[in-house]
Amino acid sequence: MEQRREKSKEKMEDYAYVLDFLPYGHPEDKRPIHRREPLAQVVGEKYFTLLEVSLKKGSSPLVMDRLYIGKGERDVVHKIKKKLRFEDLTPAAKSELPYVLEHIVKENEGRFVEFFNKAEPITTRLHQLELLPGIGKKTMWAILDERKKEPFKSFDDIASRVKGLQRPEKLIINRIIYELQNPATKYKLFTL
């Protein structure tokens, strides 16, 4: 029991980025406007969890604002309302998602470069690197050969050393979006 509680604690988001701010709640909400609460749709910084949060009175965060959503006192977020699926996002949130993810990935570049350095085979025929859109066997072997010589230091380092791989961060972003759109996918690299 204690172990299960610790595991769930590890998987909680502490920070999230705003995808869309809904000052009058959902447009589908049938209650009068004065009865609705301001909401934001956000994406978690660590596990890319899509969430809907209610906001404290007077808060009006902008898209791409980083909000504290962890335990304890929060300055902008009142409470976490619910977990969202990709299809639950507003059109504005869907259109902002790639830009917000790009910001998160670049802000945490070391974490994702480490993925290129540490990715392992999943089965005898499938490697984690091959789950990134656009990476086939040839590129996978090029990445593995280069990282044997010396671990990658940055996205630019990966791009300069692996022929045909100009924007490695885009591959990460596209995989995260794929995992958010397909939550039942068998292999997850970045989401829960």
From TrEMBL:
Pfam families per the UniProt record, alphabetical: DUF655 (PF04919)
InterPro entries named in the record: DUF655 (IPR007003), NA-bd_OB-fold (IPR012340)
Name recorded for this polypeptide: DUF655 domain-containing protein
